[in-house]
């Protein structure tokens, strides 16, 4: 695997790849890789001839009070993990390479960037959209793979691609979980053993709600209250939000329709660590009532 630090080198390589009639898949990450990230690279391998993984802890998507400085980093470990899953290139730029002195262009998105995650982290999605657009331009990728773990982010990126007519295919990969159900995340590193154990309640709550839906529950407030009461069984958890909405546009409904795809979204605090998770499911079409 070749490590590329400069934008001009990455763009030259991308041009060469395309001139050979080959395709490129990009997997954007912030590093401190885990099995979730590696699953994205494996999927990318099947989607294109050449895989470019990027590692960049993007300061523009962190608010001043967030964990940019202490975000975990381990370049050597990440590099060997990416070699083990046959990423062809690792694009690993310095901050100054991406945002040099005099950098002036920003993205402002409306709509779904303003709710849920966007309400708790008002500048987050504009920062994500900016870096993702830059990474698309730098890697000239034909396809990009993102994780369902960041469900709202996948919708934001699809909207960005649609609005700005970016010629790229967006693929969403399933959530990879720890044995206890906790969704893998670089931020899980912040959790103590006890917190990590307690955090399994998030997955349990999602599964509990899914079971109720499978047996006929389709009222939004009831679904949310099942999730909330399950989460509350662990007093150490502080809920930021719980929302159940239509999966394709995050819209509310008092009662979901049979056959509708919905998503249950959770954000909560476990001590000093903010965790997000979600689960999609289809409202059954058979009539239970
Ligand atoms: P991050 O490094 O946290 O910015 O994540 C980079 C990419 O990996 C994003 O598309 C995430 O959604 C995805 N990702 C993170 N955690 C997981 C996971 N547990 N399962 C699947 N994808 C994940």
What would your notes on this structure say?
Strand 2 (24-29), helix 2 (35-47) and strand 3 form a beta-alpha-beta unit. This protein has helices spanning 7-19, 35-47, 75-84, 95-98, 117-120, 124-139, 151-163, 193-198, 200-214, 220-231, and strands at residues 2-4, 24-29, 50-55, 89-91, 143-147, 169-173, 237-246, 261-270, 273-282. It has 289 residues and is an alpha/beta fold. The model has no long low-confidence stretch (mean pLDDT 97). Helix 6 packs across helix 7 (151-163). The N and C termini lie far apart (57 Å). 37% of the residues lie in helices and 20% in strands. It folds into two domains: 2-173, HUPs (Rossmann fold, 3-Layer(aba) Sandwich); 186-282, Pantoate--beta-alanine Ligase, Chain: A,domain 2, CATH 3.30.1300. The strands form two sheets. A six-stranded parallel beta sheet has the order 1-4-3-2-5-6, with helices on both faces. Strands 7-8-9 form a three-stranded antiparallel beta sheet, with helices on one face. It binds adenosine monophosphate. Adenosine monophosphate (AMP) is lined by residues 29-30, 36-37, 39-40, 146-147, 149-150, 173, 175-176, 183-186.
Shape: globular
The strand order across the widest sheet is: 1-4-3-2-5-6
The mean pLDDT is 97
User: What is the CATH class name of the largest domain?
Assistant: Alpha Beta
Cα end-to-end separation? 57 Å
> So, CATH architecture of the largest domain?
3-Layer(aba) Sandwich
How much is the radius of gyration in Å?
20 Å
How many E-type strands?
9
**What is the element string, with H for helices and E for strands?**
EHEHEHEHHHEHEHHHEEE
Portion of residues in beta strands equals: 15-25%
According to CATH, the homologous superfamily of the largest domain is: HUPs
Using the coordinates shown, work out and report the CATH topology of the largest domain: Rossmann fold
Uncertain runs are none
User: How much helix, percentage-wise, in residues?
Assistant: 25-40%
Largest sheet: 6 strands, parallel
Number of domains: 2
Discrete helix count: 10
Bound molecules: adenosine monophosphate
């Amino acid at each position: 695997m070749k490590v590329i630090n400069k934008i001009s080198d990455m763009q030259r390589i991308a041009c060469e790849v395309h001139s050979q009639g080959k395709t490129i898949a990009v997997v954007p990450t912030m590093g401190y890789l885990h099995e979730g990230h590696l699953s994205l690279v494996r999927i990318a391998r099947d989607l294109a001839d050449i895989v470019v993984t990027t590692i960049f802890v993007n300061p523009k998507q962190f608010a001043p009070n967030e964990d940019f400085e202490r975000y975990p980093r381990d370049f050597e470990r990440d590099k060997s993990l990416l070699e083990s899953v046959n990423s062809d290139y690792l694009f690993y730029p310095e901050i100054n390479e991406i945002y040099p002195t005099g950098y002036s262009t920003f993205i402002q998105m409306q709509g779904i960037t303003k709710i849920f995650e966007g309400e708790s982290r008002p500048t987050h999605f504009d920062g994500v959209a900016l870096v993702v657009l830059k990474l698309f331009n730098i890697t000239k990728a034909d396809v990009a793979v993102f994780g369902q773990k960041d469900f709202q982010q996948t919708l934001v990126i699809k909207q960005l691609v649609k609005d700005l007519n970016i010629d790229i295919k967006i693929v969403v990969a399933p959530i990879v979980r720890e044995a206890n159900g906790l969704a893998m995340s670089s931020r899980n590193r912040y959790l103590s053993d006890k917190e990590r154990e307690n955090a399994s309640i998030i997955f349990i709550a999602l599964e509990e709600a899914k079971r109720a839906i499978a047996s006929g529950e389709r009222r939004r407030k009831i679904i949310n209250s099942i999730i909330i009461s399950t989460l509350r069984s662990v007093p150490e958890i502080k809920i930021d939000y719980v929302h159940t909405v239509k999966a394709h546009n995050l819209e509310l409904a008092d009662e979901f329709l049979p056959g509708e795809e919905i998503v249950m979204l959770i954000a909560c605090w476990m001590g000093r660590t903010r965790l997000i998770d979600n689960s999609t499911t289809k409202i059954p079409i058979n009539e239970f009532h």
